[in-house]
C-alpha cells in the first residue's frame, strides 16, 4: 500500500496484490493530509498488509471497529481510500465495473453539476455561460463571502441577484451556504431564495446542529442538502430522524468509501431522502461516486470538479490530469455515460502520479483559509 500526495491537494492510495492486481483509492481530506497519511502508512499497513484483498467487508469493519476510537474525518478518510482501492481490485479481478457488484445499473447516464465562482463569489454569470457551453445543465455557487453572525440584511441582496441571473440562463442552481451563516442570517437568506427555486441549499448551518437545521427546514420550501462533514451512516441518523434534510451529500473520500456510501444511500432512501454525493475532489473519488450512483435508486445528481471556471483552489492540476482516458468523463446534456471498464472504470496514469508526487515532495500541504471579521473575530470559512 502506497500513498501519493499530488496537486492540487489530493491524496491517492495505491494497493497491490500478490497476483499483480492494482487498485486505486482516494483519501483526500482537505487541510489534513499528513494526518490521513499517518493512518494509511502506519496503522493500516500494520493491520492489513498480507490480508486477503477479497474480504472488503472484513477489512472495513476491522479498520472501523478494531481501533477503539471510531469515526471522524481522519480515520474515515483513510478508510475511504483503502476501501475504494479494494473495490477497484475486485472489479478488475472479476472483469466487471463495480456497479455490477452492487446489483447492476438502475440508470444510465448520471446527471452532474459543476462549480462556478469561488470563496468570494462575484461575477458568476460568465462562468455559468461557459458551463452551459461545456454541456452542464446545473451548477453550484457559494452563497456569500465572509459574513457576520448577525450582519446587515443588505449583505444577502447580492446572493439573490446572482442566483436570479444564473437561473435566467436556463440552468438549475445549487447554493452552498458552506456553514458560513448563523441562524439569524440563514433563515433570512433561505426565505429570499424561495422565489428563485434553487435546486438545493447546502449546509444551511454547521453540521453539528440537527435540531436547528430541522427547525429551518420547516420554514422553507427550498430543498435542504448536507453531508460532506458527516462521516458514517451513524452521523446521518439524527438528521434523518428529525426530518432535517432532503438531499444527502456524503463524500466518498471522507465517509468510508464505496462500502459506506452505498449503506448511506440505502439508509437515506428509507426516509425519502435523495443522494447527491459531494465530490470537489479528484478523478478516483468521482469514479467511485458514479459507480454507486449507477446502482442506487435515490441517487439524483453528482458534483464534479472540472477546474476550468470552477473550483478556485484546485490549482496545478485538473480533474483529467492524472487520467490516461479523460473521455470517460465526457459531458453531454448535463450527464456522464456509465463507466464501462472493470473496477472503477478509469485508468490512472501511474507514471504521472509518481512524477507529480516526487516533484512536490517536501512541499507544505494545502491548508484551509482562516477568515476573520473587521473586529478580528474568527468567521467560518
In short:
With 381 residues, the protein is an alpha/beta fold.
Walk me through what this model shows.
By secondary structure, the chain is α/β, with parallel strands linked by helices. It has two domains: 2-97 and 352-359, 2-Layer Sandwich (Enolase-like, domain 1), CATH 3.30.390.10; 100-344, Enolase-like C-terminal domain (TIM Barrel), CATH 3.20.20. The chain contains twelve helices and 15 strands. It has helices at residues 33-48, 56-65, 73-94, 98-101, 125-134, 157-167, 183-193, 210-217, 233-241, 257-270, 283-294, 350-359, and strands at residues 2-6, 10-16, 22-26, 110-115, 138-142, 172-176, 200-202, 224-226, 247-248, 274-275, 302-304, 331-332, 335-336, 371-372, 378-379. The strands form three sheets. Strands 4, 5, 6, 7, 8, 9, 10, 11, 12 and 13 form a ten-stranded mixed beta sheet that branches. Strands 1-2-3 form a three-stranded antiparallel beta sheet, with helices on both faces. The two termini are 34 Å apart.
SSE topology:
Blueprint: E1 2-6, E2 10-16, E3 22-26, H1 33-48, H2 56-65, H3 73-94, H4 98-101, E4 110-115, H5 125-134, E5 138-142, H6 157-167, E6 172-176, H7 183-193, E7 200-202, H8 210-217, E8 224-226, H9 233-241, E9 247-248, H10 257-270, E10 274-275, H11 283-294, E11 302-304, E12 331-332, E13 335-336, H12 350-359, E14 371-372, E15 378-379
Parallel strand pairs: 4-5, 4-11, 5-6, 6-7, 7-8, 8-9, 9-10
Antiparallel strand pairs: 1-2, 2-3, 4-13, 12-13, 14-15
Helix pairs in contact: 1-3, 2-3, 10-11
Amino acid at each position: 500500500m502506497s500513498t501519493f500526495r499530488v496537486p492540487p491537494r489530493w491524496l491517492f492510495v495505491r494497493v497491490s496484490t500478490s497476483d499483480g492486481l492494482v487498485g486505486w483509492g482516494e483519501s483526500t481530506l482537505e487541510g489534513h493530509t499528513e494526518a490521513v497519511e499517518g493512518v494509511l502508512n502506519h496503522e493500516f499497513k500494520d493491520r492489513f498488509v498480507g490480508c486477503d484483498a477479497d474480504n472488503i467487508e472484513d477489512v472495513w469493519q476491522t479498520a472501523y471497529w478494531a481501533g477503539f476510537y471510531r469515526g471522524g474525518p481522519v480515520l474515515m478518510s483513510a478508510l475511504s481510500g483503502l476501501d475504494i482501492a479494494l473495490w477497484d481490485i475486485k472489479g478488475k479481478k472479476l472483469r466487471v465495473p463495480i456497479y455490477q457488484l452492487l446489483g447492476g445499473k438502475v440508470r444510465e447516464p448520471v446527471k452532474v453539476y459543476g462549480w462556478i465562482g469561488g470563496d468570494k463569489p462575484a461575477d458568476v454569470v460568465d462562468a455559468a455561460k461557459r458551463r452551459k457551453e461545456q454541456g452542464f445543465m446545473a451548477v453550484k455557487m457559494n452563497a456569500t463571502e465572509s459574513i457576520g453572525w448577525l450582519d446587515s440584511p443588505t449583505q444577502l441582496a447580492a446572493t439573490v441577484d446572482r442566483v436570479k441571473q444564473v437561473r435566467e440562463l436556463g440552468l438549475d442552481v445549487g447554493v452552498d451556504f458552506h456553514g458560513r451563516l448563523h441562524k439569524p442570517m440563514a433563515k433570512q437568506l433561505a426565505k429570499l431564495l424561495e422565489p428563485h427555486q434553487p435546486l438545493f441549499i447546502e449546509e444551511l448551518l454547521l453540521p453539528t446542529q440537527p435540531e436547528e437545521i430541522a427547525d429551518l427546514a420547516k420554514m422553507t420550501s427550498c430543498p435542504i442538502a448536507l453531508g460532506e462533514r458527516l462521516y458514517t451512516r451513524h452521523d446521518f441518523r439524527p438528521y434523518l430522524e428529525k426530518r432535517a434534510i432532503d438531499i444527502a451529500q456524503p463524500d466518498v473520500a471522507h465517509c468510508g468509501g464505496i462500502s459506506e456510501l452505498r449503506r448511506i444511500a440505502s439508509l437515506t432512501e428509507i426516509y425519502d431522502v435523495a443522494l447527491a454525493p459531494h465530490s470537489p475532489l479528484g478523478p478516483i473519488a468521482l469514479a467511485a461516486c458514479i459507480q454507486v450512483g449507477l446502482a442506487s435508486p435515490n441517487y439524483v445528481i453528482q458534483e464534479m470538479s472540472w477546474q476550468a471556471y470552477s473550483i478556485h483552489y484546485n490549482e496545478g492540476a485538473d480533474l483529467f490530469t492524472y487520467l490516461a482516458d479523460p473521455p470517460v468523463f465526457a459531458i453531454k446534456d448535463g450527464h456522464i455515460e456509465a463507466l464501462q471498464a472493470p473496477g472503477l472504470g478509469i485508468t490512472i496514469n501511474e507514471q504521472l502520479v509518481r512524477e507529480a508526487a516526487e516533484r512536490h515532495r517536501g512541499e507544505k500541504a494545502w491548508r484551509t483559509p482562516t477568515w476573520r471579521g473587521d473586529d478580528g473575530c474568527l468567521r467560518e470559512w
